[in-house]
Amino acid sequence: MPVNPDLPIPDPNEGRNDPMDADYWRLGEDVQDSIRAAGYEHPTVEGIAVDLHDVLQAADLIRDQILPRLLAAETVEARTQALQDLRFEFHHLGWHCENATQFLDAAIPGLESL
Which residues contact 103 (CB under 8 A, 6 or more apart)? Predict the structure, then answer.
């Protein structure tokens, strides 16, 4: 998906090799396809499929891995690393939420005008 030029940085997760949750990817694609099928085509970006996928997957990562590590941390180093990982995921989530919001800010009036 092309980077939204209004966002100051590329996707913070770019270049990481996280496993892809196929169900979340399909859900994002289905939502994006439903918006297109309703008649809206965004002029500058592909859509919000990757944003939906990454938000859902990051939420799982926080719930299933980062928070349990944080709560089980027995050293300052382990706790600090978990907090840094949590901070990164919040930054990552924020980027995708902003990108998705900008897409929806265009898509909603675009569909309403059809």
Answer: 4, 42, 45, 47, 48, 51
Token pair, residue 44, equals 């500058």
CB atoms within 10 A of CB 20: 11
pLDDT, one tens digit per residue, over 30-52 is 999 999 999 998 876 668 999 99
- The pTM score is 0.84
* Tally of CB atoms within 10 A around 76: 8
Query: Which tokens go with 8?
Result: 């100051």
Residue from 86, 7, 92 nearest 50 by CA: 92
